[in-house]
Amino acid sequence: MSDGNLRKALETSKYYLEMVSKTQLDANEARWLIDTTVANFAHYYNSGFMEYRKSVSEAEDAAAVEWTGRGATFRDALGREFIDCLGGFGIFNLGWAHPRVVSAVQAQLAKSPLPTQELLDPLRGMLAHLLAEITPGNIQYSFFVSSGTEAVEGAMKLAKLYTGKSGFIASVGGFHGKTAGSLSLTGKAAFRRPALPLHPNIYHVPYGDAEAVEQQLRIAREVGNDIAAVVMEPIQGEAGAIVPPDDFWPALRRICDEYEVLLIADEVQTGMGRTGKLWGVEHWQVIPDIMTSAKALGGGVMPIGAFMATPKIWQVFNENPFIHTSTTGGNPLACAAAIAAINVTLEENIVEQAREKGLYFRQHLEALSERYRDVYCGISGKGLLLGQHFVDDETGYAVAAGLFKRGVLISGTLNNSRVIRVEPPLIISYAEIDAILNRLEDTLCSLRTSLSLPSVGVEQSLPLSAMTLHPWSTAV
């Protein structure tokens, strides 16, 4: 590395830090930030993002570069306002920059941002205690990481250590992450095939089919394929907010007990109130052996994940506390955010908000799907993890793009691009929900007109405002 390059990097870093310190941008600064961000992504991060990000492809005269947000709305560098109906794929349950979560992180930052690795850091113990109090059954111990995929990796390792077995059963369409172990559980070929071979002794069954799980376990027993655990999402998120039959999770619990395998609930997306229960498995009163959490656990402020289990299972970690470690996982800043997130979730009745607002949102989405049966296949999900199922990928993208142009951020799912996910912050207001619904109907009407589709279905609408909101409108 030449001295000239290092001097250039020093000057560049100084200017970047000046931009970081700014709370507002003038027009020239905003344009510079937009152009620099697009160039940096294209040349130094991943040029493929430019093709798929609506912020670039659908942003009219200038790319939308995110800048600041509060609650369920955020603004880009040019001050254009969006209602967030994506929620960072489940991160922003408490909205953007919830003040109590930010305050907790700032308070800890002033003391100690990272642990010594040798002394006992108090916040890690505090968070582990809180999780033991709010998780189902006798789940008691936790290990902290920085992401959902790490949490799944840890859960797999724990299951293998405890059982002495190596195999797992997961579901078609399931999403558990993209590192090697978690990717082996993920149930979509487009993600798995390029990285093959992955973790061996993995079997996939149709989601929601408990008989298929039992059949696979029966076959595994007969041929000697030792299975450590069955791994499922309580509700499949990336596959399109797919809710299983009501007897599925109770049957899984019975089957796992009968065949002496562990039951792992991947609550990375469904946990912390998203589905109208604090944990997704609580819809069916099922207690798993191991659980994972991430995304919303950090309160939308810090990245943190966790895998948790009962004392009996955790004993293999207690016997050798250095068999699984992380230098930065469970750092004091992340733990402070998670402690505050749990406090806010309980004190502000976030779970109840998700349940009630989810019912309201779904009622109106189902009415829209009836009026636009030429483009909709149906609505799925629970709470504020909802899926709008469209007739094809192109229609789904057109709806997402149309909403983006009308100031609503929404996206398809990673496993099923024809499903547009509805996953806003759980603190979203009813006025903001109504604004999203109005802009959605405006988008659907425009789409029908552009495609020359006939008007199909029920024509009487629910009592929403009839106004059409224009791109970048700040009205809610």
Automatic annotation (TrEMBL):
Pfam families: Aminotran_3. Keywords: Aminotransferase, Pyridoxal phosphate, Transferase. Its cofactor is pyridoxal 5'-phosphate. The keyword Transferase applies. The keyword RNA-binding does not apply. InterPro entries: Aminotrans_3, Aminotrans_3_PPA_site, Class-III_PLP-dep_AT, PyrdxlP-dep_Trfase, PyrdxlP-dep_Trfase_major, PyrdxlP-dep_Trfase_small. It comes from the Bacteria. SUPFAM superfamilies: PLP-dependent transferases. One of its GO terms (molecular function) is pyridoxal phosphate binding. One of its GO terms (biological process) is putrescine catabolic process. Belongs to the class-III pyridoxal-phosphate-dependent aminotransferase family. This is Putrescine aminotransferase. It comes from Ktedonospora formicarum. The lineage of its organism: Bacteria, Bacillati, Chloroflexota, Ktedonobacteria, Ktedonobacterales.
